[in-house]
Amino acid sequence: MEKQKVTAFAPATVANVSCGFDILGFAVEDLGDKVSVSLSDIPGIRVTHIEGDKGKLPYEIEKNTCSVAIRAMTEALNFEGGLEIELYKGLPLGSGMGSSAASAVAALMAANTLLGNPFEKKDLLPFAIESERIACGAGHADNVAPALLGGFVLIREYHPLDVIPLHVPRGLYCTLVHPHLVLNTSDSRSVLRRSVSLQDATTQSGNIAGLVAGLFQEDMALISRSLNDVIAEPSRSVLIPGYDEVKEGIKPAGALGCGISGSGPTIFILSPSEEIAWEVSRLAQQVFDTMQLPIDLYVSAINTRGAYILEEEI
Amino acid sequence: MEKQKVTAFAPATVANVSCGFDILGFAVEDLGDKVSVSLSDIPGIRVTHIEGDKGKLPYEIEKNTCSVAIRAMTEALNFEGGLEIELYKGLPLGSGMGSSAASAVAALMAANTLLGNPFEKKDLLPFAIESERIACGAGHADNVAPALLGGFVLIREYHPLDVIPLHVPRGLYCTLVHPHLVLNTSDSRSVLRRSVSLQDATTQSGNIAGLVAGLFQEDMALISRSLNDVIAEPSRSVLIPGYDEVKEGIKPAGALGCGISGSGPTIFILSPSEEIAWEVSRLAQQVFDTMQLPIDLYVSAINTRGAYILEEEI
């Protein structure tokens, strides 16, 4: 029996990952977006329902990341039938947790399954990158790749696209601290210097090499020593009140390190156990309570599954 | 019975390793320096014999890398006895194959064994770095660390020193092409730009992350894609006639990639088999024959043993 409607989930993701500026991302569990895609007798792609976005997301198919992604896919297939998209946002917009990526990836997963899986999961990535071009003005993959594939994903190169899943150490946990303030991705990018000293470039290389080695060797101490971003964090962290206080407090509490998730304002903290991940979440709560700035907190293992199908209706 | 004389070997090394500029090195087999250290009744450290250097290396203990390294060690031990050093150079000077590092590391291995192993092997590294400060004007570790420990070694950071042995894939071979021309290390450093674009820094980070992942995953294709240096090679390779021709020819022959060994002029080529490593050595020979520039060629597996003791006399 032909499927009529498929619903998929795609998780929140942390891009940049400190020394992994622009090349590394990872996925978290539970938190994410759901998208349902249905067959329709009316040709064309339509966004019919959006929930959880406080009315902020567009229904125009040229602007909505779900429809942009699905259209890129259906064009590749020469599919000319009708598809209707319902988007259920679980992620806050503009939070730095890969909100637009999660929507696009969930949409692609649902549409691909609905159409009988013409693509392998990993081959959906170029369509998701196309949708990021709309959302961010640049076709980044460091959110969409981990949202799709799960785990830690290295984007070694874009032309041609070279996406490398890395090993995820057992026991690694993430705390996400989302302060209720809005940073615009392009503002956050504009504070970056256009050039860096040879010394800083070398330091960054050493740290990302150490981080990758630490992931493969499950060496938590090495991961911790390597989580140091000398390129983006110094300019971007000043945009996030409380960042320095959180950073200062987490290592004595046993966390491995922290960084700005994507272009912020969410702060991610990596910990070697769930217990410590909760401990540092309480510490972050105290920091932001003092500043009377509301935050959301999430604690999660690293999601090694990526996007998945929730429901198929026939 | 107390030892009277110990002889040690330390191998040639390739530092920088393309995208691993200033942070990565590896060791080769067979090719290297030998150093004998003997107890003497006359207090103090003396260099008594140097062979294979065409008379170019200094006997002054403040200038010879062997004596500088050993003195750093004996000072740490408060050892005030007499030591005599004989150096047998197997490596050409100024070749970019870690000549000074091999001498210093072999000297430290021999002296440490002679004195009853007061230090673990890895703890000799700071003394070797001290000797590099004399030889290169900067205390680099990307030759001495692999010369001592073998394999691929990441120098994540210098202050404090963080040296990380990486996995060596089975079947990985190296070809060294040493053209007979002299480049001065400090000249070779002076051609480097003091700053790099954010884009180049990000590309380099992606490549070193890919190279480290490729080594751990034994993924030869990923290693090959990652062997791309956008920071040092563009300025340094113009100092090495034949470099571009070698680089162009090796990939069609099945090699993984190449780069400048240390600050040159030696070119290293990595291959996925011994057969291909020999094949590309013939290719390099043709390139340099055409230019009538003499070269030395070496083909070797990656040395995973590092420095070792050859002989102990009691």
TrEMBL record, chains A, B:
This is Homoserine kinase. Pathway: Amino-acid biosynthesis; L-threonine biosynthesis; L-threonine from L-aspartate: step 4/5. Residues 214-277 form the GHMP kinase C-terminal domain. It comes from the Bacteria. Keywords: Amino-acid biosynthesis, ATP-binding, Cytoplasm, Kinase, Nucleotide-binding, Threonine biosynthesis, Transferase. Signal peptide: none annotated. The gene is thrB. Catalyzes the ATP-dependent phosphorylation of L-homoserine to L-homoserine phosphate. Its main location: cytoplasm.
